[in-house]
Amino acid sequence: MAENTANKHEDGSYFCKERIKYSEEEEARLERQHFWRIIDAFRYYRVHVQEQVKRAERQFRSLPQHHQNMLPGVLSNLTCISQCADHNQDVLQAIIQNSLHMFENIEYGNREDPRKTRTPSTFDMDKLKSTIKQFVRDWSEAGQAERDTCYQPIIQEIQRLFPSDKYDVSKVSVLVPGAGLGRLAWEIARLGYMCQGNEWSFFMLFSSNFVLNRCEKVNSLTLYPWIHQFSNNKKSSDQTRPIRFPDVDPQSLPLSSDFSMVAGDFLEVYSDSDTWDCVATCFFIDTAHNVLEYVETIWKILKPGGVWINLGPLLYHFENLANELSVELSYEDIRSAMVKYGFHIEVERESVPTTYTENDRSMLRYVYDCVFFVARKPTGVYMNVQQDNQQQSLPPAAKSPRRDDTASPT
Ligand SMILES: C[S@@+](CC[C@H](N)C(=O)[O-])C[C@H]1O[C@@H](n2cnc3c(N)ncnc32)[C@H](O)[C@@H]1O
Q1: Probe target for ligand 1 pocket from 149, 199, 209, with the most ligand atoms within 8 Å of CB
Q2: Which pLDDT belongs to residue 301?
Q3: Which residues does the annotated region (Disordered) include (predicted)?
Q4: CB distance 310 to ligand 1 below 6 Å
Q5: Which pLDDT score is estimated for 166?
Q6: Cα–Cα distance between 86 and 24 in angstroms, integer?
Q7: For position 98, what pLDDT does the model report?
Q8: Which atom of ligand 1 is nearest to the CA of 404?
Q9: Given its phi and psi angles, is residue 182 left (phi above 0), alpha (psi -120 to 50 degrees) or beta?
Q10: C-beta 269 within 6 A of ligand 1
Q11: Which of 176, 206, 220, 388 is deepest in the core (most CB within 10 A)?
């Protein structure tokens, strides 16, 4: 039975104060249900896009004949979009193949009742389309400029703070919560640091598992990430242009490298004190219901002397979502809370323009004016740490993830 800790407000509004706690059995059942829901979204992709294409075709055919005659390329472009969707579907099928066994410590078995398959929600389909765009950001040549602005400042700070001529970098532990498709964490591991990515979305986990463990040949695979964008195209062919991935061989990490991905909610998985030398967050802190929970956890899990490096905006993922707690703090407020926790802010840039899964040929483009900081947990707090706590082991792999219910830029 669920132990529901949600509160009802006097004004009738309703929000979850704490996460609902379920019995282990119920938790496992919900987990399976969620897993299959995301698999269904992957499988439904082609039908979903075909519906969009059919609608566009119907609209076009409803135009007066003399208008249609002036636009000889429209129907053939729709046919092309349809073919690109078929191709994307093949890649998505490959991604979910074997996903039944992708976690070391959990099996999802068979769907409870195959007749219960429901049409995936628009929300899940949007998440899937965003995941396809995430391949551009993380694993294509087209994403290089974006990675240079988002990931490089973080990587450069790690190298400055833990240079390989002063540290045995294989012993410097770096955690990347909200790792997405894993490129930032992978790059850090490539430099020899011990790096762990953490992610809770099945969309991301299936996809990162595919790239990291099952892709080898550089630029051997193709996706059409922009076919879902019907507005703001300068040329029809912009909509159907391909991207190739992976731009590097993900298997090319040095044999000695220590790289892992852990599935689950950052707040639930990471609770051991004084464990990490560095926590690197990129476009992550605004995924919190209450960002101070993230600040508190990062403070706790960093070793004394450890650093938190952050780059990102504050586009709060739960803002305006019904029944969800969301506290939308300004950077000023977060900063002041960080200082109260005891963080020393060593580097701070309040205006770092970046993009996120940008379509560089679109007539609508967003720029995030991000904050970047390096905040240190001072060594002084070592006094509270007991001897045997100093040799902490890494956090165990989480049971599994179950969070794809939030709005996010991904
Ligand atoms: C905006 S994306 C950024 C992904 C990646 N860091 C990047 O810069 O491309 C935020 C990511 O955090 C993940 N996420 C959100 N809340 C999380 C949580 N509590 N624990 C782990 N991952 C989470 C989301 O699934 C999503 O992949």
Answers
A1: 199
A2: 98
A3: 387-410
A4: no
A5: 98
A6: 39
A7: 74
A8: 25
A9: left
A10: no
A11: 176
Compute the Cα dihedral for 339, 340, 343, 344 and give only its sign: positive
How many angstroms separate the alpha carbon of residue 134 from the centre of ligand 1?
A: 11
Kind of pairing, strands 173-177 and 276-282? parallel
Would you say the CB of residue 201 lies under 6 angstroms from ligand 1? yes
Q: Kindly state if the Cβ of 294 falls inside 6 Å of ligand 1.
A: no
Ligand 1, atom 27: closest residue by C-alpha: 180
Q: How many helices (H) and strands (E) does the chain have?
A: 12, 11
Three-class DSSP category at 302 = strand
Q: What architecture (CATH level 2) is domain 24-104+121-377?
A: 3-Layer(aba) Sandwich (3.40)
Average pLDDT for runs of 10 along the chain of length 410: 37 45 84 92 98 98 98 98 98 90 71 74 97 98 98 98 98 98 98 98 97 96 98 98 98 96 97 98 98 98 98 97 96 98 98 98 98 96 44 42 49
State which ligand 1 atom lies nearest to the alpha carbon of 203: 25
**How far does residue 268's CA lie from ligand 1's centre (Å)?**
14
